Amino acid sequence: MRIVKAINNNVALAVNEQGHELVIMGKGVGFQKKPDDIIDDAVIEKIFVLETDELSEKLMDLLGEIPAIHLEIADEIVNYAKETFDVKISDNVYLTLTDHISFAITRHEKGMSIRNVMLWEVKKFYKDEFAIGLKALEIIHERLGVQLGEDEAGFIALHIVNARQDGQAMKTTVDMTQVVQDVLNIVTYHFNVVLDESSLNYTRFVTHLQYFAQRLLRNEIVDSGDDFLFDQVQVKYPESFACTAKIDAYLQKAHHATLTKDERVYLTLHIHRVTERNRTSE
Prior knowledge:
CATH topology of the largest domain: PTS-regulatory domain, PRD
Largest sheet: 4 strands, antiparallel
Mean pLDDT: 85
Pfam families: CAT_RBD (PF03123), PRD (PF00874)
Strand order of the largest sheet: 1-2-3-4
Distance between the termini: 76 Å
Helix content: 55-70%
InterPro entries: BglG_antiterminators, CAT_RNA-bd_dom, CAT_RNA-bd_dom_sf, PRD, PRD_sf
CATH superfamily of the largest domain: PRD domain
Protein name: Transcription antiterminator BglG
Number of helices: 11
GO molecular function: RNA binding
């Protein structure tokens, strides 16, 4: 194995007998090494054989800016995911996850925290990946003594989702979150209220919206054709029913989808419940 480029004393880019570039780590592996120098196998502690030479070189560039232990932590997390959940993960995760972990640790040291607006969705729809995220927090704490919050477990989980699904699951989660947030905004502005996020009715409403958004994005919306409840809620809860018309207009414009009568009934009932306290207190 020959040196291509030494990034520091303990990390180097190398090329094997087949001509593939590898990222290697080990005490003194890059010390005073020049291109084409032969590497002593005895000093190699870890070899990262990535999918492409371009990915290996990008990882090397990253390791020139951050501590190598952050890559070791990412590797431990990926190995835990593979062994515990028997999943296939793209090598690109070594780049993205290492970069994220390093940035998260830097933010933590500066007292900066970022709220994960998709934490609810990650917990609900990606339970295995979130479990990996929680384990990642344990690994980071064990290796560095840094205790990151649950929001970071959610971010790490999304990196695993992305690596497992080539970005498709990540896109679905993002799109689903956008639908939920947009509908909540429509309700808020229609009634000119601040919804009580700690209430059970709010939790029920958001849960319904999440499942609805999931069905919508998968094109799994069906309608029973029952007009009786539709007519009833239209008369009994006219303001909440009017709000569903705005939601329907948004869905047609943004997602080329139309609310079914069933869905307008369910949404009307949820909207009435979640806004009732505000209306009765006026």
